[in-house]
Amino acid sequence: MTGQPFDRPAFALAADLDRALGDTDAPSGPFSFAEIVEHEENGSLPPGAVDLVRQWGFAEHLVPEEFGGRLRNLEQLFLLTRSLSRRNLTIAVMFGSAVLGVNSVWLWGDDEQRAEVAQGLLSGDLACFAVSEPDHGSDLGTNETTAALAGDGYVLNGEKWPVGNATRGRFVTVYAHLEGAGSSLLLLDKRDLDEASWDNHPFVRTVGLRGHDLSGITFRDTRVPAGALLGRPGAGLAEVLQVLQITRTAIGALSLGTMDSVLRIALRHARERVLYGQEIYRIPVIRRHLLRGYLDLLIAECTALPVARSLTVAPSRLSLWSSVVKYLVPTLGEEVVQEAARVLGARSYLREGVAHGAFQKLQRDHAIASIFEGTTHVNLHGIAAQLRAVARVADRPARGGDELLRRLFDWSEEAPRWEPSGRALRLTNAAEDEITRGWSAAVAEAGRLAERELPAEEGAALMKVLGALSDRRAACYARVDTDAFDAVSTEGQDLAAEHCVHHAAASCLYTWLHSFGAERARPGGTGWLVLVLQRLLQRLDPAVDLDETFLPWLEERVLAGLDGPEYFSLRTVKAAAGG
């Protein structure tokens, strides 16, 4: 779409999309909750919704700048997806499935493959990633789809299910066992295939995401040209695992968008609903649900955005960091949805009424976030498998770590431009985890700042919660760094989950150090940090209380943002603290 400010920073671009999508409370419009819910009942998308997104230019942000699109980096796509997810997760997942389907092309495709796919996406085509099989799910080591050598190409046989966009997608990236080589990725264009040799399955009926194309595809002696191969023959398993690092990170945007909407719905209801002579927001337990949910949103944002930036700052770290985001952010999202449901009470169960019944759709749709691209348990296992290597060096400063952390957490700079290369991604972090390894130095720096800059009460509260988290962290990694540690045990899963808490705590602390320099000593500029760290500590020790001293200022920001144009975000907290 011409005339769009595509050269503006990522946050401004997301705000522009927000304005284009319009007000969810409007009585009509393709992104009003009224129409979204009405068409959800029929398992369809609101007329004009996908067209509006395309006209704005969203599809251009699925194609990297290098290949003729406007995708500058993953941070940009993350923020755009967050804005879209505030309205309708079904449409966000449709485009997300397309991203999953083509990232392997950007990473390993040749010039011809990249050009063809880029032109197709820019013209409105979709793509899909055909990896899962009915009997194997996430067991990527078992692959019954075969590609046998035949002349100057291959003959493909097998079934892939379930697959997002399998029916609507023009391009299909297929995970198949290549004769003589092993599992590989093949890029197919349905337009070039014999129509009699393949067919799509009917859409699967799902609890949420109604109207989304979740279907499958079966190949029966389907002839595929030799030029369909993506990357090296036999490298398919590694390539799939590396592609998932990108989309696992991007899934955090679905959760952040959902958190924003359910909190907004519940908060507005709490301010409008009167019981016992007062708005129910004044009931202490209702207030607690909402403020906890808001703090969880800030934690999720602090955790996910730096990892999105890491694709172009430190891509070799994504094997571990993307799994942390994929486990923790959807988990926080599920808990925020639960907090909002408690505020809404019986109305959370209704398909009408408050916000036109949108809450129940958001609740059902978000359930997918912890399932696809590896379930919660799959991601915790992936973290646990790397945890001993991380624990052994947890207190050793990483070479170049300070500069890397600044580039990840300094909001004053845009993330670098993405120049896709499969060589930049790794299957493990090889113990390189600057985010957790920098904790002790960051705590020491916070102590110096507390003495020099902060009011005594804020400084004392900050150092108290940092000390408590440091003790828990040391105990956690001491349990990991033993010969008895077993990554596949339930204890291994629990310690992996605790590692995610420490990763998130470090991310919040670095955000404060690198992006709140001018606001730290002002009202609210450090109070939010104390609260999110206390909230994280509550995940390890439910007896911990939030410090009521710092809640009123943050509460004012939450209420002020209820009807504002910008989504709930730490950026609004920073702006308010800056005066």
Residue share in helix: 40-55%
* SSE arrangement, N to C: HHHHHHEEEEEEEEHEEHHHHHHHHHHHH
- Total count of helical runs of at least 4 residues: 19
Strand content: 5-15%
Instruction: Characterize the overall form.
Output: globular
Q: Uncertain segments of ≥5 residues (pLDDT<50)?
A: 1-7
Mean pLDDT figure: 95
Distance between the termini: 36 Å
Strand elements, count: 10
Q: What's the story with the biggest beta sheet?
A: 8 strands, mixed
- Which class do the helix and strand fractions yield? alpha+beta
Q: What is Rg?
A: 24 Å
Gist of the model:
Its cofactor is FAD. The protein is α+β, with helices and mostly antiparallel strands and 579 residues long.
How are the SSEs placed, and which strands pair?
Layout lengths: L9 H12 L11 H8 L8 H8 L17 H14 L1 H20 L2 H12 L4 E4 L15 E5 L2 E12 L6 E8 L3 E8 L8 E3 L13 E12 L3 E2 L5 H37 L1 E2 L2 E2 L4 H30 L4 H27 L13 H9 L9 H17 L8 H9 L24 H4 L1 H14 L3 H25 L9 H26 L11 H14 L10 H10 L9 H8 L2
Parallel strand pairs: 1-4, 2-4
Antiparallel strand pairs: 2-3, 3-7, 4-5, 5-8, 6-7, 9-10
